[in-house]
Design goal:
Elements: E1 2-7, E2 13-17, H1 22-30, E3 38-42, H2 48-57, E4 63-66, E5 72-75, H3 86-89, H4 99-106, E6 108-112, H5 125-133, E7 137-141, E8 144-148, E9 156-158, H6 164-174, E10 180-184, H7 190-201, E11 205-209, E12 212-216, E13 224-227, H8 232-245, E14 248-252, H9 260-269, E15 272-275, E16 280-284, E17 293-295, H10 307-314, E18 319-324, H11 335-340, E19 344-348, H12 355-358, E20 373-378, E21 386-388, H13 392-404, E22 408-412, H14 424-430, E23 434-439
Parallel strand pairs: 2-14, 3-13, 9-10, 17-18, 21-22
Antiparallel strand pairs: 1-22, 1-23, 3-5, 4-5, 6-8, 7-8, 10-12, 11-12, 14-16, 15-16, 18-20, 19-20
Helix pairs in contact: 1-2, 1-7, 4-6, 5-6, 8-10, 8-13, 10-13
Length: about 450
C-alpha cells in the first residue's frame, strides 16, 4: 500500500505546469471505438483513470498506448468484442459510455454497472434514457447492462438535469447514428467541447448553441491528430495550495476563460492572482483572507470539484464561511478528516425553497436528514494527523491541509489521488513541499 508522508509548514514557491485534462483524456480513448483509423492525441496525463479506460477498451480490440512524451496512439481496426469484462467496467464511470459506439459497430453491447470515486450515487438513468430514445433496447441483469438495436437513429432529447458524462455518452452514440440528434439542456463544460473538437476533426458533424448540441450522424469517421486542453482542476489545486500555504506560485496551463467563477471567488476572499501571459497565472497569498459563501453549480458556475480544496482555504480565512454543495448528494466525506486536524467545521441544512430545481442530483437519492452545506470557522491552525482519502478531489484537498498543518501527516488511500494527478508529489516537491511517497 502506498501513502504520502508530508511535513507541513512550508510555503509553496516557484513555477509549475499542469497536465492535460483528465476529463478529456479518459473520453478520447473511447473515440477509438468509432473508427478503424489511427488517432494521435498529445498532452495525455499518465494517470490511472486514463490507463484504466485503456484497459476497458483493450479487451474489445482497441489498441491504445501512451508514450513517455504523453502522446497516445489509438487504433480501433481490431474491434472484436461487444462485452466489457465485469472486473474492469466496475472500476470507472466511463464504462457505460462505450454502449453507443458498440451499438454502432455491433448492434449490441454488454457493459457492467460503472464505478469511480465514491462521491454519491452518480445516477446513469439520464444516459440510459437518452440511448433508449435513439432506438436502443436496454435491460439490466446481474450487474450488466444488455443493449441491442437494429440501428441507432437521431432523436430530440432533453436532459432532465445537467449531466456531464450523460451529454458525452449521447454525443458518442449520435455521431454514427442515422439522422440528426438534438440534445437540449446539454452540459456546457469546456471538456465536452474539447471532445467535440476531436470528433469534428475525425469527420463528425457537431455544433453547439449554448445548452443545445446538434449532431448530424455520418456513415464513418476517420483518424485525427489532436492536443487536449490543460486540466483546470489541477490549476485550482495548485492555486489553493499556494494561497493556503502563504506562498507565491506561477501556474502554467491556466485557461482563465474557463476559471471565471473561481477567480471571482479568489477576489471575494482577498486572495492574490494576476495574469502573467495567455496561459500563465501567478497565485499568491495576501496579508488577510476574507470569509466567503460558495454554492457549487454546473458550468460556468463554481465546480463541485473545487469545493473541497476551497474549504481548506476557508479554514485560514478570518471569519465564518459557507459552502453549499448542489451537484452531488454526498461530497463532504473529507470533513471528518479535517476535523481530526483541528478544523472547526459544522454541517447545516440551507433553507432551500425548491430543492428539485436547486439540486442537480436525484433528490430521492439523498439520505433523509443529510446536510448539503458546511460552515467553516477560521482562521484555524491545523495539526498533523493520519488521513484517509475517500475520493480524488478530497484526496488533493487533504494534501493541501497536510502542507499547511504543523507536524508530519500520513495520507493513505492515495490511489484515488493517482486517478487524476500524475505524480503530484513531484510537482509539489519542486514548489518546496516536504512530501514523500512510500510503499509499505
Amino acid at each position: 500500500m502506498e501513502r504520502f508522508l508530508i511535513k507541513g509548514g512550508h510555503k509553496l514557491k516557484g513555477e509549475v505546469t499542469v497536465s492535460g485534462a483528465k476529463n478529456v483524456a479518459m473520453k478520447v480513448v473511447l473515440a477509438g471505438l468509432l473508427t478503424d483509423k489511427t488517432i494521435v492525441v498529445r498532452n495525455i496525463p499518465n494517470i490511472s483513470s486514463v490507463l484504466g479506460t485503456i484497459d476497458i477498451v483493450k479487451p474489445l480490440g482497441v489498441k491504445a498506448d501512451v508514450d513517455e512524451n504523453h502522446t497516445m496512439t489509438i487504433r480501433g481496426d481490431g474491434i472484436k468484442s461487444y462485452t466489457v469484462p465485469f472486473e474492469l467496467g466496475g472500476l470507472y464511470r466511463t464504462a457505460t459510455m462505450v454502449i453507443g459506439p458498440l451499438l454502432a459497430r455491433f448492434g449490441k453491447a454488454r457493459v457492467p454497472n460503472p464505478g469511480g470515486c465514491r462521491i454519491g450515487r452518480r445516477p446513469i438513468d439520464r444516459h440510459i434514457e437518452g440511448l433508449k430514445s435513439m432506438g436502443a433496447v436496454i435491460t439490466y441483469e446481474d450487474g450488466y447492462f444488455y443493449a441491442r438495436t437494429d440501428g441507432l437513429h437521431g432523436t430530440n432529447y432533453t436532459f432532465r438535469q445537467n449531466t456531464h458524462t450523460g451529454t458525452e455518452t449521447l454525443i458518442l452514440a449520435a455521431v454514427l447514428a442515422n439522422g440528426e440528434t438534438i440534445l437540449e439542456n446539454a452540459a456546457q463544460e469546456p471538456e465536452i467541447d474539447d471532445l467535440i473538437k476531436l470528433l469534428n476533426l475525425m469527420g463528425a458533424r457537431i455544433r453547439r448553441r449554448k445548452r443545445t448540441i446538434i449532431i448530424s450522424g455520418v456513415k464513418c469517421l476517420s483518424g485525427a491528430e489532436f492536443e487536449i486542453m490543460p486540466d483546470r482542476n489541477e490549476v485550482v489545486t495548485f492555486a489553493l495550495a499556494t494561497i493556503a500555504s502563504g506562498g507565491d506560485v506561477i501556474v502554467r496551463g491556466t485557461q482563465r476563460e474557463y476559471l471565471k467563477s473561481f477567480l471571482q471567488k479568489l477576489d471575494d476572499a482577498g486572495a492574490g492572482w494576476e495574469p502573467i501571459s495567455s496561459n500563465k497565472t501567478r497565485f499568491y497569498f495576501t496579508k488577510r483572507l476574507l470569509p466567503t459563501n460558495v454554492q457549487t453549480d454546473v458550468y460556468p458556475g463554481f465546480m463541485t470539484d473545487w469545493q473541497a480544496p476551497w474549504v481548506i482555504l476557508m479554514t485560514q480565512a478570518n471569519g465564518i464561511s459557507q459552502v453549499h454543495e448542489t451537484i452531488y448528494e454526498d461530497r463532504f466525506g473529507y470533513v471528518e478528516q479535517l476535523q481530526k486536524m483541528g478544523a472547526k467545521i459544522e454541517f447545516f441544512s440551507p433553507n432551500v425553497k425548491n430543492p428539485l430545481n436547486t439540486y442537480n442530483f436525484n433528490w430521492s437519492d439523498r439520505e433523509k436528514g443529510s446536510c448539503h452545506a458546511v460552515r467553516i470557522y477560521g482562521p484555524q491552525k491545523l495539526h498533523n494527523a493520519l488521513l484517509e482519502v475517500t475520493d480524488l478531489r478530497a484526496g488533493a484537498s487533504l494534501l493541501i491541509s497536510s502542507i499547511i498543518a504543523q507536524g508530519e501527516s500520513v495520507v493513505e488511500g492515495i490511489e484515488h489521488i493517482d486517478r487524476g494527478y500524475e505524480r503530484i508529489e513531484q510537482k509539489l516537491k519542486k514548489l518546496g513541499a516536504d512530501i514523500v511517497r512510500i510503499n509499505d
